Amino acid sequence: MIICVGAGPGDIGYLTQRGAELIRNADVVAGFDAVLDVVRSLIPSAAEVVTMGYRDQVDKLAHVALAHHAGKHCVVVFMGDIHFSGFQYLERVERACGHEVETLPGISSAQILASRAKVCFDETSFITFHRRGDLEPFKRHLVHVLQDERNAIVIPRPWDAARSFMPRHIAAYLVANGVSPEHPTEVWENLTRDEAEWHGTLAECVDREFTDMSIMLIRARQPMSSQIEPAAGK
After folding, report:
1. Are residue 20 and residue 56 in the same domain, yes or no?
2. 35-74 exposure pattern, b = at least 16 Cβ within 10 A, e = fewer
3. Are 174 and 146 in contact (CB under 8 A)?
4. Do 154 and 93 reside in the same domain of the chain?
């Protein structure tokens, strides 16, 4: 058995009860160091812990797959929710195993941000740049989202200086591509842990630096709810 589990945004209190149960009963628990640190108190002392980084993840997942095929109960832990920005990692797990695997959703930082900032996902689009490969289609999509007067919750891409696309880069790109610099903008850091928040505009965001643990909200200039006409007789 192998299952991929979303661990939540960083505070173990946001891990689901089912996720905690699977980790407590696992023979093998695998994931990136920072993610395993979130759930380490739940890992059985007899379980094998497989830590990995970006460079060795393929080899380490191959090791986990061998344990899975040998009949061990294996859990691969993801930060946040698998279905928000973890699909490339999920694909690597499935390539290692040679088949599709089961997933258990978690709570994403995007959901926590929506709660903190009081925005509705009906009026909001989610876009993640936390991925490998070409970002251009996702950049263009973000421009269209804002032009359509929707809110946008955006996960930046940190990693290294040559490939990063952080809030200031995102703001600069949007302004350069015709999005109003006056869009209300928020950046939240370390959600559910040592939280920090910044409020301003896209224009002001261009000159701000934020940590790797940041997530961005760009609000529609006119809330969609204010555009709804009252029903006749109201």
Report:
1. yes
2. bbebbeebbeeebbebebeeeebeebbebbbebbeeebbb
3. yes
4. no
Mean pLDDT over the full length of the chain: 92
Residue 123 lies inside a defined structural domain of this protein: yes
Average pLDDT in the 74-94 region?
93
pTM of the model: 0.86
pLDDT score of 133: 86
Q: CA–CA separation, 166 vs 210, rounded Å?
A: 8
Q: Is residue 159 part of a domain?
A: yes
CB 143 within 8 A of CB 176: no
- State the total domains in the chain: 2
